Amino acid sequence: MAIQIDKHPSLYSFTGNPILFELTADTADAVEVQISCSGLTQQATYYPFRSGEQYKVKMDVSEYLYPDSGLQLPVKNQIIYEWSEFKLSYRVEIGTDYVFNGFAFRGGISKYAWQKLSEIDSDYFAFRLNNSSGQFLFTTRTHSKEIRLRETELFPFVFISPGKVFVFQAESGETIQTPAIQAGALCVLNMQQALKAFESRYAIHPARIEVKPAGSYAFHFNIQPGMVTEETYRILFRNSLGAYEQIEITGQATYTPEFQEQESYNALSRYNFFEEKRERLQSKRVIVIETGYRNREELEFMLDMVKSDEIYFIYPDQTSFQCRVTAEKATFRHRIVSPTSLNIKITEVTEEIYNTPQLPFFPTPTPTPTPTPTPTPTPTPTPTPTPTPTPTPTPTPTPTPI
Fold first, then answer.
1. Dihedral angle, C-alpha 235, 83, 65, 322, nearest 10 °
2. N- or C-end of the chain: fewer Cβ atoms within 10 A?
3. In CATH, what number does 129-225 get?
4. The domain 1-105 is classified under which CATH number: 2.60.40, 3.10.450, 1.25.40, 2.40.128?
5. Is it true that 1-105 and 129-225 share their CATH fold?
6. Longest dimension (CA), the chain
7. Which stretches does UniProt call biased (Pro residues) (predicted)?
């Protein structure tokens, strides 16, 4: 059987969006496909459908890709460094003659964005993430060439290396240069280290820093001081693109713990009558808080945080806990003309039975994301594939919980 590949994915994809192949065959015979990823090889069989005088096959292999949920973001004393574990390598073999190798990232873009980019025969990587002429960071703050954030919100950004020397230029003209890293490598940009480099070399603390791959302007940071308020908290979360970002929260926080429903029972006392008893109650930390006044772009960023599957609430003393965030009344005007804040609810993901007074020390620095590994699900595609396991490589070490 002769198979023609009419469409295949680009080199980079997201596991949360379709990863499509379209084929044309000269017969109605079944097409055998083999997908290899994370040390697991799976077999799938696809049956062509008639389209005029030809036989067509459409297949989406995203359901076979299982990104590692136990990754730890490395934090180093460098401005730019590699993080190869962030991307997921996969291989698709169709029939006996065609092989495709690609990379996927945990996360995805909205269906609306997917549709609009598909209409112009493009994708999010060509549009932004693998395009060094503009802002190419794995951030959901903005598509703009200006990234506005507070200094307390700085957290290492992920990007695909364009293979160029990077020049960082302050508004007063001083520059810091970093060496080129191989094109296509997954890298981390630590702007806190860039600020330290400007301070140590020029004794300046710039608010505006331009990022120039090969000396050509791509985008810039507008870094404002953190807010000085009675209450300042931070929320660290995994965004839609699979990278970690941080938000400063300056609104008033109210502690409202949730207790489980009491389950009582009767027990015979030593005086030979029944008394009502109960076990200790389980509870969860719950904090209701205002986000502080935000513009429209920041509010959209907040909604990405609310949707996240991995979130940490950080106190001013750097202690933190993993949580989920809900916003029961996430409403704001489409055109914001006045200061707007969201009311959000922070709920701890674990339950406590016992209470301990606050410890007299705070050993944790800025927390490192520590996701809980999730079991690999068994795919149930149509048609049904037959998994064929291969030797599993050494897994990425699980980080120390924050």
1. -20
2. N
3. 2.60.40
4. 2.60.40
5. yes
6. 91
7. 360-402
